[in-house]
Amino acid sequence: MSPSAATAVETPIGTIGIEATEAGIRRVRLPGEGRTSPVEHGDGPAAQNVSEAATQVREYAEGEREDFEVVLDWDGVEPAHRRVLETLREIAPYGTTVTYGELGSTAGVEDPRDVGVFMARNPFPLVIPCHRVVASDGLGGFGGGVELKQRLLELEGVLPSRLDLGDV
Fold this sequence. Notes:
Blueprint: E1 4-11, E2 14-21, E3 24-29, H1 45-61, H2 79-91, E4 98-99, H3 100-107, H4 112-120, E5 133-134, H5 146-155
Parallel strand pairs: 4-5
Antiparallel strand pairs: 1-2, 2-3
Helix pairs in contact: 2-3, 3-4
């Protein structure tokens, strides 16, 4: 295994943990997932990957970035899972959603529940936007919790901000 680096990023949506190797980002941890305490990330390619991802995650959470331009370390991600995640990146740009069924159909996965399992195991949330995958009858689940999913979709303008709703 190549040298690794990690850090925690304080953002308006909470503390995001980022882990990387020399090959790219290995893991993004949402608030509440543990391992998000600040750490030194040293020098070298892994540290550069973490630093770049941290900057982009902060920009995204502050509403200043729509797309991530980081290299991902796909080591350990099985081919079918990777195909679904890469398809998601292609068909659900910032400010849009796709249903589990639509994503599955496009990625060649018959059962939408399998897509849900793949989304729950997404090692790169935010970077690969699993929060944009919704149920046909509502928001559906999310590893960071439904409230965080709603906040992210509000940030992207998919849902009206709760602040915009007043006392409704």
